[in-house]
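User: Please predict the structure of the protein below. I'd like the answer in structure-token form so I can feed it into my own downstream comparison script.

Assistant: Understood. Taking the following sequence of 75 residues as input:
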Amino acid sequence: MIERLAQSGMPGVLRAALLLDPTQWLGTRLWDDTAALYLLEPQDFAVNGAHLEPALNEETWRRRLVKAINATPAR
């Protein structure tokens, strides 16, 4: 997923930082990014016990996260 981030701008900074030491995050989810994705697409989340979690398969979740991070901000 990280290698699908754009190589320039803020996505490029995030990509470079995460690729610096993959052992720090490999096999984990980026929980802050999941919260941001909830703000963009709350319909893609479902209640699980006392919390919300993505109601998408892993690849769809990753694809949407990459798309959101790579998106050019509106001006």
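That's the full token string. Residues 58-70 form the longest helix (13 residues).
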